[in-house]
């Protein structure tokens, strides 16, 4: 890996940093009236024959890794390879919910660091990511579910995360349109309320990181599919792409949906199964819903965007597949569950639906860090919760590459835990806990 002699982080001013352009109101008007072309937010480059680091996957995880490699450690001879356009995979298909109210201490600490990074991301990247911390409600419809909420709340508090269990009256105060009466099929006994949670513009996060990566001089290669990974003597030697071969000693797998296929190229097998995850969005209406609403019992979650649309989702489909087509069955079931929570939404029209791919691990926690193949790192297995972890995943993977040491924050997420029986057990807060 890359070790700085004094162990200090590099000053970006020493590394050819090009600060992203800022535009005034007059610049916006001038461009709008003249019809002139805007400068590219990031540049197209010829593919070099060699890079210090090659990152496979141009979503938030891959871009964040490249960004923190450059910003914190001055490692800029980096290529981010994306077979489509950046953000065209899971980063562009998720429902952009951010939270840290997980169940295990390891998970809470990890995601809380990501929330902290998201809170300052717009300032750090000089790009408005539109993070709205409106709160996050996980509903409890049974005694056992309510016990789990109390469990999660206590773990959160021990880790310094703002979470508490509230009753039906407080739920009604936060969401007046919610049916909190007792004369329903699934009465609400309480909820885990997490004020720091909220939503963010996923495309803005991707674009902001891409601008930052480009400003530091690293290369983003869109429409560049990886065809193979060359391994010799137990370590990575290069990457084969449809545009040519690249020599490198470090490859990072930051893909979703195809993570097992990329790892197989390096001879690394992983306990991951891929499932479709569907979502839908309604016509825009006047804002009325502040918190994100989640019901694990009903397998549904809903939030409202800044433009007024309601975004709905559920748990992953009950079968493994690489299909990203929506289904009528999904929309019918989802709409029924949403109406059990908020009957007044009955006349709202669904505009569209879509699906993405989720790589699920046996313990519903990610797989991060080194592998038996030297120089081949993984940041995969994110299930339905990968976008929440983008900044902290990039930060910690960059640290491994730069220092050769695994940060304590992600030590429990290693690949070896499955063979050694050290499962994390995050299903209680990750299965549909968007």
Strand order of the largest sheet: 5-6-4-14-15-16-13-17
Label the overall shape: globular
Into which percent range does the helicity of residues fall? 25-40%
Low-confidence stretches: 4-15
Strand content: 15-25%
Distance between the termini: 35 Å
CATH class group of the largest domain: Alpha Beta
Overall number of domains: 2
**According to CATH, what is the topology of the largest domain?**
FAD/NAD(P)-binding domain
Derived structural class: alpha/beta
Report the average pLDDT across residues: 92
Largest pleated sheet: 8 strands, mixed
- In the CATH hierarchy, what is the architecture of the largest domain at level 2? 3-Layer(bba) Sandwich
Secondary structure tally: strands: 19
**C-alpha-based Rg, rounded:** 22 Å
Number of helices: 13
Fourth-level CATH superfamily of the largest domain: FAD/NAD(P)-binding domain
